[in-house]
């Protein structure tokens, strides 16, 4: 057995510098230039790391996000900062028009948000933040305040987003699973008529290389889907078997795996605040069974996305299909198959690459530089490191942790990296990269 390696020198100081620089006073931006507002799952990951700097600040990070929750329970994927110029990010508050277009769904009146969601990692983040300083958490009533909000968030997903009728959560836009331009979305997006390219301005290209970002065609389709959803009042009506609804309708294994992990966390939170934990455990078990039944592909050795409009499982191999390693109670043979796939030729962990790429290394659309079409992302690898430990693979987890820490420092806490070379891609001083590197560094330094 190999011993865990300590974090690289200077990593903790560098991560703290990034998180302090990106802090606005109530939340943390992923990147002051490229992403100048508060993002949903970014804030969850950032809180997981910033709990090592200040548990109270991590609590505030999550409370700020939850303060923008809609009446129907959804947590929007962006909370807009009114101090940021409207042209700094597209699509901005003037596009989403949440306070008017989202009124029927209970959008808050005091703040502008987007209308779509992101993966539900928040309950897990809240539990980890609580564990960082249980006394401070109890003194401020942190879990007692967030518990009903998290429960409402999960109810929204379970009730409004089971659009396939099989017990899993569906996403209605490629931005919702967080892997925006994944090759998994190529076929579903091909059904979407893009808006004309001259009708919007991409602020992201003011801060990043076009070769690292989604294409204009991608954006044209993203805008069309978001505008249609907005113009429908952000209603989730439309089942896959007919009726109105998004042209893009997918069951994603990563989203559902994170919901299961967070539902287990919510059960623990419920027990700590004196609420019924059994309802969360039962739903987590139900979701796990549905995930295996609907998305597991034994021949591929991973979970696939299901295209509810086109029918059937999407053939592309994505890192999202490995994220169910996070799920407690996953059948042992499935967990073992996921580890083999992660370390096999399609993802190469520990062999051809040190960090898991976002997409199949042998896939038809693999690109080591372009956003979610191949680069390695630090949040995905943090999640997989956790999953490897959960399912009895500590040596592989130690190696992945060491690779993530070394790459985070060498890349300047990059947004994402070339999986083969570790070359920085996207923006630098990225919020969740710094936060999750800090979390892994603390764990490495505490390891025996």
Provide structural commentary:
The protein starts with 10 loop residues before the first helix and ends with a helix. The chain has 448 residues and is mainly alpha-helical. It is 44% helix and 4% strand. The chain has helices spanning 11-21, 40-50, 55-66, 93-96, 98-101, 122-132, 134-139, 142-160, 186-189, 216-231, 253-273, 278-295, 332-343, 378-390, 394-410, 431-446, and strands at 38-39, 78-79, 170-171, 250-251, 296-297, 302-303, 306-307, 376-377, 416-417, 424-425. The strands form four sheets. A three-stranded antiparallel beta sheet has the order 3-4-7. Strands 8-9-10 form a three-stranded antiparallel beta sheet.
- H/E order of the elements? HEHHEHHHHHEHHEHHEEEHEHHEEH
* Uncertain spans: 240-244
In round numbers, the mean pLDDT is 95
Q: Please report the distance between the alpha carbons of the first and last residues.
A: 12 Å
Total helices: the number is 16
Q: What share of residues are in beta strands?
A: under 5%
Q: How big is the Rg?
A: 20 Å
Helix content: 40-55%
Strand runs, count: 10
Globular, elongated, flat, extended or rod-shaped: what is the shape?
globular
SS class: mainly alpha
Strand arrangement in the largest pleated sheet: 3-4-7
The main pleated sheet reads as:
3 strands, antiparallel
